[in-house]
């Protein structure tokens, strides 16, 4: 349970406002470095890219959280965990760094707040696409469109796999998980399949323009911000095996109507 004193000190609506301000800060750091000729790129021990922009964004967000939410803990991709508060900010400074490095505009900053291990707030900001999405428990989900207008979002009402638009990312990861044949079976059963990359397909599920998204081999900071947005938009987001929360290494997001049908195929 959340400490009532925490809720009184920082109502979730105020936390969401703060998270959107954090996203503004992140965009102001990351976007000028996108396609920069002097971008510094290196490889981490897990053989994934990291840039000076990744580090600068996370440093900036950590400084702001420390100043504005001094009692909260932080878990970030680049600099690990600080603090042990029940309120934890989970940050992926640039989700889609490989795209960022190659000049592909599909990359985002992911910001989540988890309370007692449950994500209650998420913001996904994609400045190179001029898009942003957010959601918080009980407050609904919304987006800012390319023209700057804002609107509430809702998942689709597609109820049959034969009518579904599906985005399953990382064919090689499905193969590594022993699910390649399952992937192909699902692809044959649905209307169309596309791989839109990283956080974007999950946001399209929340908007109702894609019906299913999922992948294997994910980290908590890749997923935490997605959960409140998809859930508040009326969808369902679990691990591939149905477990709840962003702690299990995989994600499957649907409009809810298709969740068990997709899981039945992928779970064989």
Structural class: alpha+beta
SSE order: HHEEHEEEHEEEEEEHHEHEHHEEH
Distance between the termini: 36 Å
Q: How large, in whole angstroms, is the Cα Rg?
A: 18 Å
Q: How many strands, which pairing sense, and closed or not: the largest β-sheet?
A: 8 strands, mixed
What does this structure look like?
With 268 residues, the chain is of the alpha+beta class. The chain folds into 2 domains: 4-147, Fructose-1,6-Bisphosphatase, Chain A, domain 1 (2-Layer Sandwich), CATH 3.30.540; 161-266, D-Maltodextrin-Binding Protein, domain 2 (3-Layer(aba) Sandwich), CATH 3.40.190.80. Helices cover 34% and strands 27% of the residues. It is built from 10 helices and 15 strands. It has helices at 4-9, 12-30, 52-68, 97-102, 171-176, 180-189, 200-207, 220-223, 226-232, 259-266; strands at 41-43, 49-51, 73-76, 80-82, 87-95, 108-115, 118-126, 131-136, 140-144, 150-152, 165-168, 192-193, 212-216, 236-238, 250-254. A hairpin with a 5-residue loop joins strand 9 (140-144) and strand 10. Helix 2 (12-30) runs antiparallel to helix 3 and helix 7 runs parallel beside helix 9 (226-232).
């Amino acid at each position: 349970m959340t400490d009532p004193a925490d809720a009184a000190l920082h109502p979730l609506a105020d936390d969401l406002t703060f998270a959107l301000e954090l996203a503004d800060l992140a965009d102001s750091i990351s976007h000028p470095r996108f396609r920069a000729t002097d971008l510094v790129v290196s490889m981490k021990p897990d053989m994934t890219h990291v840039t000076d922009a990744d580090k600068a964004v996370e440093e900036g967000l950590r400084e702001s959280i420390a100043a504005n939410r001094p009692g909260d803990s932080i878990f970030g991709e680049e600099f690990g965990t600080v603090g042990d508060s029940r309120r934890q900010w989970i940050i992926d400074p640039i989700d889609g760094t490989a795209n960022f490095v190659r000049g592909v505009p599909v990359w985002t900053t992911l910001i989540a707040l988890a309370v007692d291990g449950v994500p209650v707030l998420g913001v996904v900001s994609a400045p190179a696409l001029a898009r942003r999405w957010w959601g918080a428990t009980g407050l609904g989900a919304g987006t800012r469109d390319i023209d700057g207008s804002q609107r509430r979002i809702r998942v689709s009402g597609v109820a049959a796999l034969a009518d579904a638009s599906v985005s399953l990312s990382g064919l090689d990861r499905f193969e590594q998980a022993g699910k390649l044949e399952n992937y192909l079976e699902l692809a044959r059963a649905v209307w169309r399949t596309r791989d839109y990359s990283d956080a974007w397909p999950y946001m399209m599920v929340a908007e109702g323009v894609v019906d299913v998204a999922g992948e294997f081999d994910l980290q908590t900071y890749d997923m935490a911000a997605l959960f409140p947005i998809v859930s508040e938009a009326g969808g369902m987001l679990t691990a591939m095996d149905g477990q709840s929360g962003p702690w299990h290494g995989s994600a499957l997001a649907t409009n809810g109507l298709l969740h068990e049908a997709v899981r039945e195929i992928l779970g064989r």
